[in-house]
Specification:
- The chain is globular, with a radius of gyration of 16 Å.
- β4 (126-129) and β5 form a beta hairpin.
- It contains eight helices and seven strands; from the N terminus they run ααβαβαβααββαβαβ.
- The protein has one domain (5-185).
- It has 188 residues and is of the alpha/beta class.
- It has a five-stranded mixed beta sheet. Strands 6-7 form a two-stranded parallel ribbon.
- The longest helix is centred in the middle third of the chain and has 14 residues, at 72-85.
- The protein is 41% helix and 13% strand.
């Protein structure tokens, strides 16, 4: 059973597929990088549901923070590099130093700040490997919701009616309950 951060790090470390992806992303040597969102949440929820087969994820979200190069073309070039390293993986690379413009909100101060402003607490997670290939987890909204199978908005997504609406639309669009039937969804 998953009860704490140590357990989460252990299941990721033991997953050769995830480690291969993490090492590929690390090879880009990006500033303040993480693989986040569904890559982490799905592994946790799959484990808690006792799934023996991995739930397919639509993309592998690699984020980084580099104020010196906010050209979207750079992100596309990085995706191509990753596709050359590991073809067949649905890579998505985003520089969080520019994503505030896309999301029409104040600038982020770091990648972890950006993760804290993801719509759901259970998705506001990131992992990476350090130089020793140790797995590191960031969970700016904590891990309680994800390990308790609870889907709630991050504090940022409760601040305005527009953000609440985005959170509620994502619940419908993503239809997570049809995949992970033990989750509890909280509405605002």
């Amino acid at each position: 059973m998953l009860k704490n951060e140590k357990n989460i790090l252990e299941i990721i470390r033991e997953d050769d597929f995830m480690m291969e992806i993490l090492k590929a992303a690390k090879s880009l040597d990006l500033a303040d990088w993480w693989i986040c969102a569904g890559f982490v949440r799905s592994k946790i929820w799959d484990t808690l549901h006792g799934f023996t087969k991995r739930t397919e994820i639509p993309d592998v979200d690699v984020i980084y923070f580099d104020k010196n190069d906010i050209d979207e073309l750079t992100e596309k070039k990085l995706e191509e590099k990753l596709k050359n390293i590991l073809p067949g993986i649905p890579w998505s690379v985003k520089n969080e130093a520019r994503m505030h413009v896309v999301n029409n909100i104040p600038p982020y101060s770091s990648s972890v700040d950006a993760i804290s402003k993801f719509p759901e607490t259970a998705t506001a997670l990131g992992v990476k490997v350090n130089d020793n290939n140790d797995v590191i987890l960031t969970a700016p909204c904590g891990i309680d919701d994800v390990i308790n199978l609870e889907l709630k908005p991050t504090p940022f997504f409760t601040e305005t009616p527009e953000r609440v609406a985005i959170y509620e639309k994502r619940i419908i669009k993503k239809d997570w309950k049809s995949i992970w039937n033990k989750i509890t969804i909280y509405h605002i």
